[in-house]
Amino acid sequence: MTHPQRIVIVGGGPAGLATARAYREAGGAGELTLLAGEPHLPYQRPPLTKEYLAGESGASELPIEPAAWYDEHAVTVRHERAVAIDREARTVTTSASAEGETLSYDALVLATGSRPARLPVPGADDPNVLVMRTREDSERLQALSGPDVRVAVIGSGFIGCEAAASLRRRGADVVLISDEDAPQSARLGAEAALRIADWLDHDGVELRLGAPVARIAPERGGWSVTSEDDSTTRADVVLLGSGIKRNVELAEAAGLELTDAGTIATDAGLRTADPAVFAVGDIAGALNPSAGRRLAVQHWGEALNHGKVAGRRLAGDAEATWDVAPGFWSTIGGRTLKHVAWGDGFDNARFVPGQNGAFTVWYERDGIAVGVLTHDNDDDYERGRELIESGASLP
Length: 395
What we know:
By secondary structure, the protein is an alpha/beta fold. It is about 25% helix and about 30% strand. The protein starts with 5 loop residues before the first strand and ends in a 5-residue tail after the last helix.
């Protein structure tokens, strides 16, 4: 593909913005249009369950780039959604009007991200059962929570754990409900999960673990959450933190190839089988040469990394490749976890305690390093990344 003159980026999250930024930084001079989808300029999502939800930071701190940046870098932001793609005509139809408006492209970057998944149980689809993805979601939860308000958080993934701790900082009475015996035990192993449980317990979060939710029902101005062990939790507010669904419907309707994991298949440069179409962020199933396989990731940092690679490719850098091990940071009540891993499993987790509550967990599969998790141990975090990406054995 020759250097594109018209680039349309569908999605206003970190991957879409990172693509535009990298393209300009690499000298790309084509016309750039970013379909943001939301009424805001691209903003940071991690604070939505952390300091922004806790009331410790404001809306002015959320934008990734100031408004002036888009003018300075000739990036046109349209607060519209893409509703259809015609790959043969190379056009995108937007939600600009009832009939739709059509934009032509030479290159198309799909950065449509994901949306919260709702549990497949009675009551979970009630619109008054809250989810967390957008700035508005966080602000709605802020408005409904506070002292003397009981909040039930369903799910012990990082969204659930972060939100539970932040709600406690707001003074809410919080109970976290999960089918796991300890938070994140499947992903991080038993020892790390117990540390997270201890943190939440220390912060005053009540833990009800080990039984899936069976139903959610309105009750006396609030809610009742019943688990499969017949225990019932009553709350004023319910927040679902039960995973995500990737927004791949637009790509699927356009005939792009999906992987078995439900992601859009790309090469290591984030290009799909259609040379004019790239996919970045949550929706991408990108080949990672260091891993030797396609990976599906949902991390903020990898959305940025994907965008950097795609932007450089669009600007003509044929060597730009996504070959790093995926990583993320999570802050739970002021305590930070740093994790880097291929993300598709391990057969042994070795927990190494440090001083003053610090720890490292080394993950291996078939004797090879495949992941590391640290708390207050940055040296192990950096060393772990090197071991993982080089396919070395654990220390």
